[in-house]
Amino acid sequence: MKKRDYILEFNKMRFGANTLEFSLQDAFLEYMGSSVRGVDAIATAEVIKTDSMYQVTVTLNGKAEVTCDRCLDEFECPVSGSYLLILKISEVEQFDDDEIVYITPATFEYDLSQFLYDCLMLSIPLKKECSLGKKACNPEVISRLMHTGEDENEEETNVDKPEADPRWEKLRNMIEPED
């Protein structure tokens, strides 16, 4: 993976629509310093060039290997999404706008790697469950999670149970009057 693989070179683009394709895999994530692995995605960027701006629409499709939040099994989660970036040409650099990146007319390239990484991370769901990967959770783990710790077939042990405190009974009667 080379840093040049994710650079928009403005001088090589024609006015109107331009289409570029970027591969997002483990080498890209390693380059970005991410701990996420097992990603195989394609980001298609449609760049519309005008006199005063570049409108970049990134469509992401692929899969990522993630851990299920319920059973801790690994599964392939589909990742997809569409994201917009506007690069506005301006003599004055403005940093107060979150949705528009201002560039000077002398700028001849823009590094899309951070934007592509952000798109990928946003497309991974917050709640990850095996059902997203069209598989069932590990039944052994789920049964252990549902187990209450008391088996109905076990014999009751002769452990002294504390008696109910009569003060609590009086309080319960205040809330729930006897019929």
Descriptors:
179 residues; alpha+beta; five-stranded mixed β-sheet; two-stranded antiparallel ribbon; 4 helices; 7 strands; elongated
Produce the secondary structure layout.
Blueprint: E1 7-9, E2 16-25, H1 26-32, E3 39-49, E4 53-67, E5 74-89, E6 100-103, E7 109-111, H2 113-123, H3 139-146, H4 166-175
Parallel strand pairs: 5-6
Antiparallel strand pairs: 1-7, 2-3, 3-4, 4-5
Sum up the overall morphology in one term.
elongated
- Oligomeric state of the chains in view: single chain
Mean pLDDT rating: 84
- Number of E-state strands: 7
How far is the N terminus from the C terminus? 76 Å
Largest sheet: 5 strands, mixed
H/E series, N to C? EEHEEEEEHHH
Rg from C-alpha positions? 28 Å
Give the helix tally: 4
Name the strands of the widest sheet in spatial order: 2-3-4-5-6
Counting helices, strands and paired strands, the structural category is alpha+beta
Share of helix, binned:
10-25%
Poorly predicted tracts of residues? none
Strand content: 25-35%
